[in-house]
Design a protein that fits this description.
74% helix; 5-stranded mixed sheet; single chain; alpha+beta
């Protein structure tokens, strides 16, 4: 029985409701069923369902899967002259078309950001596709308000695109275009996101006062909006605002950084991608059709298969008996071989125990050094610095007791205290990064890149979603990254280096690459000068994975995967 239009429209509304409630697994199941039902019955519902399926994949980071459905929509809608020529449906159809363009551009944009640096041809394809689909939206000249909102989102995405390419004039131009349209449409959430892009440009240019002002403007727009979309933008705005304020020596930055991490902790969801992949494999329409056809074919061949199975079974029994006889004769020979193998395994186990003991000893030494350095740094920074500051305040108060000229000894003493305070701050930062302790890995890694970049080497960072973790875990990860950076500076002769860090499925993924001279792993793996033995031991004890991809004159790519050690939660009463 065919479903009529009203039933199909009602079914789509139910699927759309599940999608908006972020019940992606159930929504995807029902959407696949609706897609098949509406294909030859209601074009509008078919296109909307395609778009919804693509959005589920997009929001669960399965960008390649999403692209398939967005492209099917674009191709079919452009060929569907009846749909686009129908005045009643024209407005809605054109909007859906440019929304598909936006999702295609955004999907290729995301793939470009996540692609392997070495695959330059693939990166170029992603870049060209991104700009192609964004331009499709910009070429759309209709000034209707609902079209302008999608165009403003494209402007905002282009701003982010050009920020990553360091084309700041273009990035500023498109950010301002996006802000203007969202302000006109009173879309405060997207206006705040566009303001965040604009502020990030000034943050990169180190105009921290202007960046701070724009971040605060964006936060003010959505301060009373607690929707999931607004909350995500708040987390990003607070994180970047805290860094700008830190650079301005405004230590209210710590408070904003904690707000950002608190929001991000609430938004974590590590299981959605696996669920969606499972549902996709289980409910893909084409796969279901193939299974039905195969089942019918199996019924037709059932009797024939039974006959052959009986015949093959008899042959197998005969062959099994022959093998049993041969096996019995071989078994006697294998007994002596197994004895030799057992002795070899025991010898290997003894070597492994010895190796594990050496690793534990090495890690205990490193842990002791890290703990001692942290204690000394905290004592210098929190105790001695505070005492010196207090002494300076007392001297300042003493100045007021002199009605005439202040004794020169007070000026000299304050100068000495100031120099001592600066020396202690420098020393404590050398022992353990204060930025790491206060702000976490994201900003500590940015600081490493800024600190060591110079006219001979440029170190960039690409940091995905990160949070605050257990403090000793953060210190160990920071030390591992710092050791790799030191090796790049000492040995690589590189002009460019990249530090990438991201979190996924309860693990932290590190990727440190350079375009330097590389080295022969077989010759250098045991060389203490590179510190690889200590790093390898540390990663083993953290139950992580460590891989080096390098060769002479080919640069170096280092990949580390570490299980995350979570920060202890405090229960508030």
């Amino acid at each position: 029985m065919q479903l009529n239009d009203s039933v199909l429209i009602k079914s789509f509304k139910n699927v759309d409701k599940l999608y908006k409630e972020k019940k992606f697994d159930v929504a995807l199941k029902n959407a696949f069923t609706l897609l098949d039902s509406s294909k030859n019955k209601n074009r509008s519902v078919f296109y909307k369902t395609n778009y919804l399926i693509g959005n589920i994949f997009y929001e669960t980071l399965s960008f390649n899967d999403g692209i398939k459905y967005f492209r099917v929509n674009v191709d079919n809608m452009l060929n569907d002259s009846l749909l686009l020529d129908n005045k009643d449906e024209n407005l809605e159809s054109k909007l859906l078309l440019i929304q598909n363009y936006l999702r295609l551009g955004s999907s290729y944009h995301k793939l470009k950001e996540r692609s392997n640096v070495k695959d330059k041809e693939q990166i170029k394809n992603y870049r060209d596709s991104t700009l192609y689909y964004y331009k499709k939206i910009l070429d759309f000249n209709d000034l209707n308000k609902i079209y302008l909102d999608t165009k403003a989102k494209a402007y905002s995405n282009l701003s982010a695109f050009y920020i990553n390419d360091s084309l700041y004039d273009l990035a500023t131009k498109y950010a301002n275009k996006s802000i203007k349209i969202h302000k006109l449409n009173n879309n405060k959430i997207n206006q705040a996101a566009a303001l965040g892009n604009l502020a990030s440009i000034y943050l990169i240019k180190e105009d921290f006062n202007l960046a701070k002002e724009i971040y605060l403007e964006g936060l003010d727009l959505i301060k009373n909006d607690n929707s999931s979309k607004a909350v995500r933008f708040k987390a990003s705005l607070y994180a970047n605002l805290s860094w700008a304020m830190y650079k301005l020596k405004d230590y209210k930055a710590y408070e904003f950084q904690e707000i950002s991490y608190g929001i991000k902790d609430e938004l974590r969801d590590t299981e959605i991608r696996g669920i969606v992949k499972k549902i996709n494999a289980e409910y893909d329409v084409n796969t279901v059709k193939k299974l039905v056809l195969k089942e019918e074919e199996n019924k037709r061949l059932k009797n024939q298969r039974t006959f052959w199975l009986l015949g093959i079974g008899s042959v197998i029994i005969i062959i099994t008996l022959l093998f049993a006889l041969i096996f019995y004769k071989l078994r006697q020979k294998n007994l002596s071989l197994k004895l030799s193998q057992t002795q070899l395994v025991q010898s290997q186990n003894l070597e492994k125990i010895k190796s594990d003991s050496q690793v534990r000893i090495l890690n205990a030494t490193i842990d002791g050094k890290e703990s001692e350095r942290k204690q000394i740094a905290e004592t210098l920074h929190d105790s001695i610095s505070a005492l010196l500051s207090s002494a300076n305040l007392h001297l300042q108060a003493t100045r007021g007791l002199f009605k005439g000229e202040t004794p020169v000894e007070i000026d000299k003493t304050q100068k000495i205290i100031k120099e001592a305070s600066q020396s202690i701050r420098d020393l404590s930062h050398t022992l353990v990064s204060s930025v790491l302790l206060k702000f976490g890995l994201k900003y500590a890694i940015k600081e490493i890149a800024e600190k060591y970049s110079n006219s001979q080497i440029k170190i960039d960072t690409r940091i995905g979603e990160t949070r605050r973790y257990e403090q000793n875990f953060e210190i160990k990860v920071y030390n591992i990254i710092q050791e790799f950076v030191n090796n790049i500076l000492k040995h690589s002769k590189a002009e460019k280096a990249m530090i990438k860090i991201d979190e996924a499925d309860g693990k932290l993924y590190l990727r440190i690459s350079d375009d330097g001279v590389g080295f022969d792993k077989n010759k250098v793996v045991n060389k203490e000068g590179l510190g690889l033995n200590q790093i390898d031991a540390r990663i083993q004890m953290m139950q992580g994975e460590f891989n080096i991809d390098t060769a002479p004159k080919s640069g170096t790519v280092i990949k580390v995967v570490l299980p995350i050690l979570e920060k202890k939660q405090v229960n508030l009463v």
